[in-house]
Amino acid sequence: MKVIVTISRIFVGVLFIISGLIKLNDPVGFSFKLEEYFSPAVLDLPFFTPYALALAIFLVILEVVLGVLLLLGYQKKITLWSLMGMIVFFTFLTFYSAYFNKVTDCGCFGDAVKLTPWESFTKDVILLVLIIVLFLGQKFIKPIFKPKTSVSVLMVSLLACILFVNQVNNHLPSIDFRPYKIGASIPDGMTVPEGAPKAIFEYAWTFDKNGTETTIVTNGEYPTVDGEFIGVETEEIQKGYEPPIHDFTIEQNGVDRADEFLSEQNLVMVIAYDLAKSNFEVYPELKQVTDKALAKGYKVIGMSASNEQWSNKVIDEYSLDFPFYFTDETTLKTIVRSNPGVLVLEEGTIKYKVHYNDLDELPFAN
After folding, report:
1. Are 206 and 274 within one domain?
2. Which of 125, 253, 313, 320 has the maximum number of C-beta atoms within 10 A of its C-beta?
3. Which residues cross the membrane (predicted)?
């Protein structure tokens, strides 16, 4: 039993620390995931949405701290009960998401490791079992240091988490796991390789044949049936290849101009996924920076999911000399964790990506 408890202790502690650090690297991304859970379509808890970022930071730091405490063997009762409470909550959440197909990615490991809802639920069930094992064998969990040393290690870990999250929250993630990282080519990310597997669908056609409903299942072809067609249900039975970037558009008046802009030699993208939530204090500086870019021959465009009324209002209020185009909000949130943020591209390849606090790092800023 002692060996099983020790292995469980190390596995659970290390996994909590790794999971927490990955999300700590991108707290804004995790807050977006929490907002998805809080939406009316999932848990319907909209009153939590304004506090999503604060909750995200608290949860990921707690995750790391609990992992450290478990490995230290310090305050084991508080640690075990806290681990149990957290894993029970997330097991319920992942089951709910998987069963009702509400959230397609739990965000357990940020963008570093993508898990399907059922994979996330399975992972949480395994952790739940291991934590139960720790409860049953808690007498074998012994502190590895004296209390003063354990407290010192805990305080250092907590301080490191706070400093790290402050850095990435006010700039950008230290490690970018997304397909829009610096050096990535957006056109290449949208390409489907030759011979890539295609999605396979199954169609259930329903007909009224002499007053009796008849259903015929095919792989797509319309069945020949002597009856009145009622409806068809489609089910994807095998997923096809999905490129890393599959929802990138730059639209104006319903026309996608992505190919045109991604062929530009020097393109600056000002990205504000929601202009109503944008940090307007930085727009005077953004105006200066984009004016310098235009003067040096760069093409400058804005990209937002906000409507034309909002974009025109911002352009007029801050005298911006570039137009805004429409792009899906989720895509923009994925591209850069800053509202606004700025990208510099060369024929579709991302050369620079900065938070609004780092506009001076752009090549044309000075």
Report:
1. no
2. 320
3. 7-25, 45-71, 78-100, 120-137, 149-168
How many CA atoms, within 13 angstroms, populate the side-chain half-sphere of residue 151?
3
Q: Is residue 191 part of a domain?
A: no
Whole domain around residue 307: which residue ranges? 251-361
In a domain, 48, yes or no: yes
Q: Does residue 11 sit in the same domain as residue 133? A: yes
- The answer to whether 221 touches 162, Cβ cutoff 8 Å, is no
In a shared domain, residues 233 and 255? no
Residues 103, 120: contact at Cβ < 8 Å?
no
pLDDT for the residue 18 = 92
- Same domain for 93 and 210, yes or no, is no
Low-confidence stretches of the chain (pLDDT beneath 70): 102-113
Per-residue pLDDT at 107 = 58
Could you give the CA distance from residue 74 to residue 316 in angstroms, rounded to a whole number? 58
- Whether residues 21 and 60 fall in one domain: yes
In the chain, the number of structural domains is 3
Residues 6+ apart with CB under 8 A from 86: 62, 63, 66
| Res 65: pLDDT | 95
Distance CA 227, CA 230 (A): 9
8 Å CB contact between 23 and 90: no
pLDDT digits (tens, 9 = 90+) for 125-170: 999 999 999 998 888 889 999 999 999 999 999 999 999 999 999 9
